[in-house]
Amino acid sequence: MTPDLQQRLAVAQQAAQNALLGELGPTGHWTGTLSSSALSTATAVTALAAVDPKAHADLIRGGIAWLSAHANADGGWGDTVVSQSNMSTTALVWAAFGIAGADAQYPGILTATERYLRTQAGSIERLVPAIEALYGDDRTFSVPITMMLALSGRLGPDGWKRVRPLPFELAALPRGLFGALKLPVVSYALPALIAIGQVIHHRSGRWNPLRSVTHARTLRVLTQLQPENGGFLEATPLTSFVTMSLAGMGLAHHEVTQRGVGFLRQSVRTDGSWPIDTNLATWVTTLSIKALQSTDSLAPPLTTSQRATLRQWLLGQQYRVTHPYTGAAPGGWAWTDLPGGVPDADDTAGALLALKFLAEPDADTVTVATAGIRWLLGVQNRDGGIPTFCRGWGTLPFDRSTPELTAHALRAWKAWAPHLPKPFSTEVQQAAHRALGHLSRTQRSDGAWIPLWFGNEAAPSQENPVYGTAQVLLGLHSLSAGGIAVKTLIERGEAFLRSAQHADGGWGGAAGVRPSIEETSLALRALGTAPQHSAAVERGVAWLLDRWERGEARQASPIGLYFARLWYHESLYPLIFLVDALNHLGSKTLSDPESAPSDTGSSSSNR
Fold it and tell me: Which ranges of the chain have pLDDT less than 70?
């Protein structure tokens, strides 16, 4: 690296660290800001209009005005204001305008929207089958969309007969039977299953005695599942679907409906929009800790007081009892500190690593870490991979093994291995061996790995092999004695990343895809400072520094994927990933043959 580039890197590294530290909230952790969502705004408007259009007229008007101001030129809407239009979100916005009675106020919007939907579906009459075809056998999102179209009146007087029923009676079964019978239902989907299934049954006129007799019982289950703040999973769409469904069958004053309304009123933004989720506070906090700790600087960015505050906060976020919503075992962490959060593998691994970086382990943290590691072992699938929420049978994305989560768990296990008692340490080593088998089997022929929770709208199949490969490589680099097989996986993954780099030095989600701060930073962090990557890394660093110096490094890209593959961006992602890359590269030298990416739990390691 030239002296000039090194100097620019040092200046940007310090400034970016200061910027990230400046985002620390008054409670001592990071919160971030999720992108506003047309889909969330449309569902919230519809829910409020279904409950009481007069009482919520101010929020309904604000939501409709925001939607009208953020339509794409083609007449459709995407999941974020910088996303491509898609049929699902556009159909939901169309429904929201209908139930809000806003067509006459925005005639140009109506014409353009219906033109877009006809282009996508062939005709308005073909919209329902087109939406169903889009999601295939998975009805967890196609049915809510068609239900909302029927509720809004967009499907005509016989619209409810065009909505497929949902087996809400399954919610009356003991939870343990879901897995035993391999039912395509998981506990976090139960609120939608119950509420949407009931309104379809109520409004369609279909006769089903089993559903009639389980109505009251499953409604009680729904009441028990609702968090105290009313927001199911802290998610605006899910909470809205439940709320509008209950209102749609005459239960506008039910306690679940009213708590849902309370959540929607609390979570609306000043511009009239809603995000997909309240926040990713735990996730962005663990990411930030690891990014700031990826430097070998003698003056660590986080002060002793900040470390102590963050450590105490993270310890307090671990679930110490069986989760009342999903039935998840104790020991995991969710993406948020709010009541609607649910323990998951990525956040549990992230919290374990962050705790390791904050302070030398003591008895308390070893106990907490042991429980967290045991939670990860408990969800490991038979194929050796780690799923998102629960060990499963592969019928839904959330119980399916995914390589980036598997690699993240490997890093957490590796970081805490020296502090675990011998019998348990042996169990973890065996789990790690099985996890490596999963990573070996899921590496593509071009050397890449495909993640579940991140994508890129412009990439083939909207996948993000750059993100997935970078995260898996960080996990593999943590295995200091991985052997020839691991070395081969690493070499192939690194070759893929080099092949995906643009000539200007940046990376997008895949080769030929427009570069972003997030993806370029992740690729640089994964390639590290080994001499064989020096040319690619130097070009990438120059690309990043150019954007930083032009003030463009805080522009977030919609690479995140939420439930039902909804796109989002998070305001802190570009800054966090940038700090991570600059800290790691700034503390090494590209010419040092001994320097290579490592992740052994020391202060120079991070996600």
Answer: 175-188, 296-299, 393-396, 480-482, 588-607
Pairing type for strands 560-562 and 274-275 reads unpaired
Of 408, 483, 492, nearest to 446 by C-alpha is: 492
* DSSP-based three-state secondary structure for 570: strand
What are the distances in angstroms from CA 254 to CA 120, 232, 244, 258, 347?
38, 16, 12, 6, 34
568: which strand partners?
Answer: 560
**Domains in the chain, CATH or no CATH each:** 3-34+279-586 (1.50.10.20), 38-275 (1.50.10.20)
User: Cα angle vertex 519, ends 513, 524, to 5°?
Assistant: 120
Q: Token digits for 392?
A: 């499963």
- Are the beta carbons of 277 and 267 closer than 8 angstroms? no
Tokens of 18: 């200061």
Coil, helix or strand for 310? helix
Query: pLDDT of 262-273, one tens digit each?
Result: 999 999 999 999
- For the entire predicted model, the pTM comes to 0.92
Q: What is the DSSP code string of 464-497?
A: -HHHHHHHHHHHHHT-TT-HHHHHHHHHHHHHHH
- Kindly list the distances between the CA atom of residue 429 and the CA atoms of 229, 424, 437, in Å, as whole numbers in the listed order: 41, 9, 13
For 386, the 3-state DSSP assignment is coil
In tens, the pLDDT along 78-88 reads 999 999 999 99
